[in-house]
Amino acid sequence: MLHGKCVMVTGASRGLGRAIAREAARCGARVGINYLCHADDARTLRDEIVAGGFPEPVLLPFDATRCEAIEQGMARFLEVCPRIDGWVNNAARNLPGLLPTLTEAEIRSQLDSALAGPILCCQAILPHFLAERSGAILNIGSVVTERSFRGQSVYAAAKGGVASFSRALAVEYARKQIRVNCLQPGPVETDMFGQTFGLLPADFIARLPQGRLVDAACVAAMAVFLLSDQAGSITGGVFNVDGGCAL
User: Fold this and answer.
1) Is 173 a catalytic site residue?
2) For 6-241, which CATH superfamily applies?
């Protein structure tokens, strides 16, 4: 589905980003594995993908919230790949807590990583996509924009901004054949979501419509589809993969 394409995934060393990077590689893409702190996890993912006989990923350590770092990371990826076909803005920080308990630094960290970071990454990749007259951007949002949980007010605000930003950017660049979509996962069993459990009812999972957390592989499969040419007429969409959580 992505054979011969080059796709950058930010925050790809662990969690949902890891699942998306793995699935993109399995579907034929040369993947840029971006990470900031978890180098061992990134190397393990690269080795796992290579062992499966898929295109060797490129490890790209850079801060996806800093303009200069993003530009440098993109340039390093282009030293290996002839072009970039897709960009997934997955990196984000979720620091759950009731608003009065959060520090200014914790609030700004979530807004920087979950909202400003994707905006700056899009700003960096757009000139390349404009030169190629093609490209797919996938911003990872969250179902908390439609059904929030305790301790998620700042994260929900950031992810709501991601959805609105995706729609607006899609309108701006549709005629340039650049597609922008937003994928909103429900609760997925990752380290990030694990931080939220302490603020949720003990029977939270049982209350979900499917009675279980969302499978990361389902989210990754949808991500790959939205990056592929099969989704060539899909732009400006906000898609939930949430097990009915937002119903």
Assistant:
1) no
2) NAD(P)-binding Rossmann-like Domain (3.40.50.720)
